[in-house]
């Protein structure tokens, strides 16, 4: 229920931001400013963040608001174990990856994130899935997010943990560690893992 509510609030924020960008008179601007204030009040109600902090985190948009993109990679060892990183933010585990950076292709983002977090050089072979977080039971989040997961193959093999992660390890699909569920869910890992094991060449998308 909270996830559905946050999706609706995020949509309302997008409408208010677009309205303020294209409002043609002061009356319209006033209505959209009021809507934006209501959005922050609703965010405050269902989160631990103050209205002031929320406004700092989400300043007024200067361009048309769009979806944020999270890009991650699935890399398997020879014995089919999954490479995972322990996130410094919450001390839990996720597939290597992060937000898409401007100026990098999706393939380049995966390569860069693996190198920074694990020390490994990888080759992203194919796109396994595009998840819309709205359709999956992630914790509520004020961003609207698409999540890309690529199948990657290592071309170097010496792990060197990056400064922004706590640990790097391989895990069996049946013995996954506590997951950073804002970043990845067990059901999503199982889906992309099965695609690789079964050599399913179709990309999953919501």
Share in β-strands = 15-25%
Q: Percentage of helical residues?
A: 25-40%
Q: What is the CATH C-level name of the largest domain?
A: Alpha Beta
Number of helices: 5
Tell me which CATH architecture of the largest domain applies here. Answer: Alpha-Beta Complex
Number of strands: 8
The biggest beta sheet, please?
Answer: 5 strands, mixed
Order of helices and strands: HHHEEEEHEEEHE
Question: First CA to last CA: what distance?
Answer: 19 Å
Q: Helix- and strand-based class? A: alpha/beta
Low-confidence stretches: none
Going across the biggest sheet, name each strand in turn: 4-1-6-5-8
CATH homology superfamily of the largest domain: Nucleoside Triphosphate Pyrophosphohydrolase
What's the topology here?
Layout: H1 2-22, H2 26-45, H3 51-57, E1 68-75, E2 82-87, E3 93-94, E4 97-99, H4 106-118, E5 122-132, E6 145-154, E7 165-171, H5 186-197, E8 204-205
Parallel strand pairs: 1-6, 5-8
Antiparallel strand pairs: 1-4, 2-3, 2-7, 5-6
């Amino acid at each position: 229920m909270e996830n559905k509510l946050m999706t609706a609030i995020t949509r309302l924020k997008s409408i208010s931001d677009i309205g303020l960008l294209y409002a043609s008179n002061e009356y319209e601007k006033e209505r959209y400013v009021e809507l934006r204030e209501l959005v922050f009040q609703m965010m405050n109600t269902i989160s631990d963040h103050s209205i002031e902090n929320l406004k700092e985190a989400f300043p007024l948009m200067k361009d048309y608001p769009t979806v944020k993109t999270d890009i991650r990679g699935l890399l398997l060892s020879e014995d089919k174990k999954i490479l995972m990183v322990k996130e410094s933010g919450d001390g839990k585990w996720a597939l290597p990856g992060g937000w898409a950076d401007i100026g990098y292709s999706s393939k380049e983002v995966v390569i860069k994130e693996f190198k920074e977090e694990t020390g490994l050089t990888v080759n992203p072979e194919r796109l396994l899935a595009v998840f819309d977080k709205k359709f999956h039971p992630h914790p509520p989040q004020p961003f609207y997010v698409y999540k890309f997961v690529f199948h990657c193959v290592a071309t170097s093999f010496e792990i060197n943990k990056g400064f922004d992660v706590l640990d790097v390890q391989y895990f069996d699909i049946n013995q996954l560690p506590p997951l950073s569920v804002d970043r990845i869910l067990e059901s999503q890992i199982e889906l992309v893992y099965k695609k690789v094991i079964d050599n399913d060449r179709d990309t999953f998308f919501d």
